[in-house]
Amino acid sequence: MNWVRGHLLGSGSFATVNLATHTNNSDNFPSITAVKSSDTCYSHLLQNEKQILDRLGSSPYIINCFGDDHTFEDGEDYYNIFLEYAVGGTLFDQLKNYGGKLPETLVRRYTRSILEGLKYVHEKGFVHCDVKLQNILVMEDDNVKISDFGLAKEKSLKNDGKLECRGTPMFISPEAINDNVYESPADIWALGCALVEMFTGKPAWNFSGSNIWSLLIRIGVGEELPLIPDEFSQEGKDFLQKIFVKDPLKRWTADMLLKHPFVWDDKNISLVKELINESSSPSPRTHFNFSKEFEYDFCSPEERLQPLVEDQRFVRLVRI
Ligand code: ADE
Questions:
Q1: Per its UniProt record, what InterPro entries does this chain match (predicted)?
Q2: At 73, is the pLDDT very low, low, confident or very high (cuts 50, 70, 90)?
C-alpha cells in the first residue's frame, strides 16, 4: 500500500490521527483518508476498533474503515487503520467554532444522527462504551458520524467478574459504576451527557474538584441527576428526562428516542401535520385508525394507550 502521512488531526491516549494521501488508490479506497496509528506493542485497542468496524459494516452514521497496515517509521513499528476523513473534525472542535455552544436546531439534528448510529450499533449487537463529543465526527455535508470504537464490545459478553473501566468519568452511567454493567443503555446515558455539553458548552455534571471518586459517587449513588438546562425547549427537557433515568431498564432506547418530537425532522413534522389534517377532515381514514397507528409509532410503551391525537400535550409537541 502506498500512502504518505500528512499533518496531525488529533491524538488520544492510545493513538494519533493524521491525514493520509494514497498514491495508488483503488476504487474502494479514497485518495485522502485519515490514518489512526498506534505503536504495534500497544495496538490492542486499535485492533479491536478495526475488528468491530469490519463487523458493523457500512452505515451513513458510522465512520467507514477502508483497511489497515503496518509501517516502520523512525525506528518504531506502527499499526495503522485508514478511516473516512471528516473535514469538520470532532463535534468537540465544532463547539469551539460556534463560540462554545451549539444552537438548539443543530443540537437536534446532530442528536438525531448520533441516535441513528447508536440504533445501528445496538441492533448489530455491540455497545460503543465511549460516546462523547470527541468521538463524534463532522462530515463535509454537515452530517455527523460515530467514531472511536476502541473500547466497544459485544453486547452481553461476560467479563469474568473483572472490574472494567470503560469510557470517560463525566459520561459514565450509574449502572457502570454500581454494577460494572456496560450495555446499550450506558451509551444512551452518555448521549444525554453529550447533548447537554453541546447545548450549554459545559459538562453535564457540575464538577470542578480533583477527586474523581466524589463525582462517581454522585453519579452512582442517590437521586442526583445531571442538570437539565433551563434554556432548553420543552421537547428538549422531556427528551433528557427520558434519558437521565438511573434504572437502565427504564431508560429509553435509541429506537424509542428516535420517535420523540425533539429529534423529528422536517419530514416527520409535515407528515404528522398532514395526518392531523386528514384525521380532522372527512376522509376514508377514520380518526380511530389514525389514532391507533399514531400511538404505536410515536410513543413510549407506557404512553401507547393514551389517545394522543386528542391530547393537548401532544398537539403542542407537534407544533414546533
Ligand atoms: N479526528 C479523529 N478522527 C478523524 C477523522 N477520521 N477525520 C478527521 N479528523 C479526525
A1: Kinase-like_dom_sf (IPR011009), Plant_MAPKKK (IPR052751), Prot_kinase_dom (IPR000719), Protein_kinase_ATP_BS (IPR017441), Ser/Thr_kinase_AS (IPR008271)
A2: very high
Architecture of the structural domain at 91-262 = Orthogonal Bundle (1.10)
* CATH code at 3-83: 3.30.200.20
Count each helix (H run) and each strand (E run) in the chain, helices first.
11, 9
Is the minimum distance from the CB of 201 to ligand 1 under 6 angstroms? no
Ordered by start, the domain boundaries in the chain are: 3-83, 91-262, 267-308
148 catalytic per annotation:
no
Q: Is the CB of 114 under 6 A from ligand 1?
A: no
For residue 119, say whether it is annotated as part of any ligand binding site.
Answer: no
Catalytic residue among 39, 54, 69, 130: 130
Q: Which helix (H) or strand (E) holds 18?
A: strand 16-22
Q: Of the ranges 33-37, 46-50, 154-158, 270-274, which one carries the lowest mean pLDDT score?
A: 270-274
The residue type of 123 is E
Question: Cβ of 256: how many Cβ atoms within 10 Å?
Answer: 17
